[in-house]
Amino acid sequence: MTDTTDRTDLTDSPDSPDTGEQGQRRRRLTAWKRSGRILSRASAESTLGERLTALAADAGSAYDLDEWADVYGDGVVAELERRVARTLGLEAAAFFPTGTMAQQVALRCWAGRTGNATVALHPLSHPEVHEGGALAAVSGLRTVLPTHAPRLPTADEIRAFDEPFGTLMLELPLRDAGFVLPSWEELTAVVEAARERDAVVHFDGARLWECAPHLGRTLPEIAELADSVYVSFYKSLDAMSGAALAGPAALIAEARTWRHRYGGQVFQQYPAALSALLGLERELPRLPEYVAHAKVVAAALADGFRAAGVPWFRVHPEPPHTHQFQVWLPYPAEVLTEAAVRQAEETGVTLFRRWFADTPPGLAVTEVTVASPGLEWTREDVRAAVADFTERLRP
């Protein structure tokens, strides 16, 4: 994809001078909030009062609220780190305020240990597309690209790559290629190929939580393949913010030092930590169910587009590898976004959210997430929503 925007309404600044766009954002958020039928809801789409009330009401199930608030990473933050390490089957974990910082630190630590500051990754990976060149500008790392195919590199591509690298970073799933995953056999083979080249392997597992069904392995079995793993708390677990870096105890101890140097030693982080603990307790066990139903929704979307006579469409991948996937249509992005928000406003049904222009010209893409509210949708519900949506595209 050529569009470098992180594809979410939640990145638009409330202080943006573009009041027209800010007004449209508020319109979309209002329409989604009022929808009686929607495929997923994000906590960040709630008001401040709603979010604070829900956290105060629910957090006691995940942590003793009579404990003292955290100070510089103790208390509830340390408990979250222990639970993440245990969930992934790794020695230790460290909480970071952002995934960008967590991965900067991980890759910098590995560069020092391997003596090679070159990182092999995919051109659609998050550091290449969504971080403003931070790996080079902030951490002095250099990136190389073993493949340009819209999938993770293969073992043969890693073996044939013509220059050395210290770390191979694999984004699981590769979000901007359509939340795609390799098979378990392909993943183990590419890890083995990297090790043959004396490189370490780091998993960008921002959405690792939902990879187990497709790979057919447990989270500890997946995490064990890598030398280090980063996971996000808000992308799949619906927490407020934050991430964790997990791996060997010695690496995590070094990462804590670099976390402080990067400005990540925050005085108190209990809201983020509590919401992450809630996500581990409530959302993580349900992700396999979401992944399974995403396949139902994706198939019904394709059926609906065919029935509506849409001249061209693509649901990608089909079937989805996780509970998120892409939909492509041959219309201007602004036309599709307007049809989607009007459908939500007029019928109380949110099928799609924002659409984005992409290449070649004339195509637009959106991302679909199936979570708890989406489990209520039958195939017939999806097809009916598609029929209503496509009718809004007719002249």
Automatic annotation (TrEMBL):
Region Disordered, residue ranges: 1-27
Keywords: Pyridoxal phosphate
Cross-referenced SUPFAM superfamilies: PLP-dependent transferases (SSF53383)
Domain Aromatic amino acid beta-eliminating lyase/threonine aldolase: 71-302
Pfam families cross-referenced by the UniProt entry: Beta_elim_lyase (PF01212)
InterPro entries found in the cross-reference section: ArAA_b-elim_lyase/Thr_aldolase, PyrdxlP-dep_Trfase, PyrdxlP-dep_Trfase_major, PyrdxlP-dep_Trfase_small
Annotated transmembrane regions: none
Basic and acidic residues: compositionally biased ranges: 1-10
Domain of life: Bacteria
Listed cofactors: pyridoxal 5'-phosphate
Family from the record: Belongs to the threonine aldolase family.
Official protein name in the record: Threonine aldolase family protein
